[in-house]
């Protein structure tokens, strides 16, 4: 442990020095210019367009959206009819302390929620509105609702095909359920190919820069410190704090997120409700503005198709459905019933996108703090919207943004560690190298613009979904049988509440 701490300090010291060299006035450092150009090329490739029903649309958006709607119908609207059962599970009505796993089902949900509830709902909604207008929020909500079914599928599979080690630790996620699940169906080679393809495409997600970027933007909005040099310094500070937590593993992460997520969400939702309830007469008009913008967008490139694409991009980042990332946290839950954890997991998109994102959109639309088609804005737009009604709230939001970003970073530290472990092995030396790499790569996040950061993250995330969704399609009949069996045992009383 002492050796690892020394390596971390040395790495951060080197980056602090290099950050001073990179930080320049004017156009920005050479580092920023080169990487920004590379991000633009990468994004253009991933979001290249095809013609569908007479409209130009990125092929990857079609790929991501299709399973959300198809699985919602295939599972007979599981996203609607399982809420009561899911709430019982989360409250511990079916808890089995002897079940394999590392954390409770509530802690697994908290860890996964910390990776979704947060800057995707605060900054992501603002980004969507600044590009596509208020109507983009409508499509975020619709897609988030359907994303619940996809999240149910991947998290059920993650528990069913997880690897429980002799020491009680757990490894799970798409790498495992793609390989093991398809092998069980006689498609071993296909499963192994998809598992390794996923791991390779998911590996770049070790670069968790969006959280650093948007939490820094919130703080700089309040303090006025927004230079590239201060961005480097902020990245180093956040990386050091992250290192302190992720060294402890999933139990440490779950312990932190189980406390942070309810606190952060409570503060943010309370502030949003104060504004919404204080302008309750304007809420119907705000919903009309959102609805009209969804079907009659004004000045948005690509018209309705363009607004849907923007909503899809932000909803995928907000819910993470289809990426398979949250399934790695849910795989660690203490349960003998994979379907029960799938039901817990489908609550995530409802909380983070259907509820929290809607509140954010209402605050921005009610206060009128948005301009469509100019420079892409992130959390500064949300902060301005809150500040126009509650003058001191931008300070609270800056703190909340820091905590939201921090909790998401440490959750993704766990996700990325499982991908790293699958590719490079789980030896102590390998995992120590991962922790150093992960923390160091956080540092440049505050240097790029919001547009560059979201282009990079969108491109990486959408590619991860390709092998994951193929595997879910292939295992969908198995999932449906498992769901029907679980519900039958609940109804018969075979599965009893504790």
What is the CATH architecture annotation? Up-down Bundle
Q: Output the number of helix runs.
A: 22
Strand arrangement across the biggest beta sheet: 1-2
Structural category is mainly alpha
Unreliable stretches (pLDDT < 50, length at least 5) are 10-26
CATH class: Mainly Alpha
What is the first-to-last residue Cα distance? 40 Å
Share of residues in helices = over 70%
Which topology does CATH recognise?
Amino acid/polyamine transporter I
Tell me the number of structural domains.
1
CATH superfamily: Amino acid/polyamine transporter I
The biggest beta sheet is recorded as: 2 strands, antiparallel
What average pLDDT do the residues reach? 78
Tell me, what's the shape?
globular
User: What does the radius of gyration come to?
Assistant: 22 Å
Strand content: under 5%
- Helices and strands, in order, run as HHEEHHHHHHEEHHHHHHHHHHHHHH
Summarize this entry quickly.
This protein is mainly alpha-helical.
Walk me through the structure.
- α1 runs antiparallel to α12 (228-246), α8 (135-160) packs across α9 (174-184) and α8 crosses α14.
- The two termini are 40 Å apart.
- This protein is globular.
- A hairpin with a 5-residue loop joins β3 (163-164) and β4.
- 74% of the residues lie in helices and 2% in strands.
- It has 22 helices and four strands.
- It has one domain: Up-down Bundle (Amino acid/polyamine transporter I), CATH 1.20.1740.10.
- It has 498 residues and is mostly helical.
């Amino acid at each position: 442990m002492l050796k690892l701490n020394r390596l971390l300090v040395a790495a951060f010291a080197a980056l602090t020095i290099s950050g001073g060299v990179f930080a320049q006035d004017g156009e920005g450092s050479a580092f920023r210019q080169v990487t920004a150009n590379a991000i633009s090329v990468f994004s253009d490739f991933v979001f290249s367009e095809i013609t569908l029903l007479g409209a130009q649309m990125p092929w990857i958006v079609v790929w991501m959206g299709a399973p959300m709607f198809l699985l919602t119908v295939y599972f007979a609207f599981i996203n609607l009819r399982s809420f009561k059962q899911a709430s019982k599970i989360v409250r511990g009505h079916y808890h089995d302390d002897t079940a394999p796993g590392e954390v409770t089902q509530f802690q697994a949900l908290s860890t996964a929620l910390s990776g979704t509830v947060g800057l995707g709902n605060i900054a992501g909604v603002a980004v969507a509105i600044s590009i596509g207008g208020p109507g983009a929020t409508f499509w975020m909500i619709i897609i988030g609702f359907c994303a619940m079914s996809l999240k149910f599928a991947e998290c059920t599979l993650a528990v069913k095909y997880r690897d429980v080690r002799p020491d009680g630790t757990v490894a799970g996620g798409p790498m495992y359920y793609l390989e093991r699940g398809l092998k069980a169906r006689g498609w071993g080679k296909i499963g192994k190919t998809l598992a390794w393809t996923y791991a390779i495409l998911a590996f770049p997600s070790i670069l968790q820069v969006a959280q650093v970027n948007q939490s820094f933007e919130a703080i700089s909005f309040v303090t006025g410190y927004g230079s590239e040099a201060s961005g480097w310094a902020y990245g180093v500070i956040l990386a050091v704090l992250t290192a302190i937590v992720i060294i402890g593993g999933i139990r440490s992460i779950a312990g932190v997120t189980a406390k942070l997520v309810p606190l952060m969400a409570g503060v943010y939702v309370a502030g949003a409700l104060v504004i919404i309830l204080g302008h309750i007469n304007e809420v119907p008009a705000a919903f009309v503005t959102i609805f009209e913008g969804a079907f009659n967008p004004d000045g948005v490139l690509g018209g309705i198709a363009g607004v849907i694409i923007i909503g899809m991009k932000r909803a995928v980042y907000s819910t993470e459905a289809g990426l398979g990332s949250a399934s790695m946290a849910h795989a660690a839950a203490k349960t003998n019933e994979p379907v029960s954890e799938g039901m817990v997991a489908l609550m995530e998109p409802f909380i983070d996108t259907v509820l929290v994102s809607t509140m954010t959109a209402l605050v921005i639309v009610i206060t009128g703090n948005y301009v469509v088609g100019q420079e892409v804005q992130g959390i500064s737009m949300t902060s301005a919207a809150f500040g126009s009604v509650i003058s001191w709230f931008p300070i609270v939001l800056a703190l909340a943004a820091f905590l939201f970003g921090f909790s998401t970073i440490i959750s993704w530290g766990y996700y990325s560690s499982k991908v790293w472990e699958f590719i490079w092995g789980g030896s102590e030396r390998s995992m120590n190298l991962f922790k150093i790499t992960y923390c160091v790569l956080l540092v440049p996040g505050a240097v790029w613009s919001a547009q560059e950061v979201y282009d990079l993250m969108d491109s990486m995330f959408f590619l991860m979904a390709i092998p994951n969704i193929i595997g879910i399609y292939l295992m969908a009949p198995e999932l449906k049988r498992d769901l029907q069996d679980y519900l039958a045992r609940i109804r018969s009383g075979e599965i009893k509440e504790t």
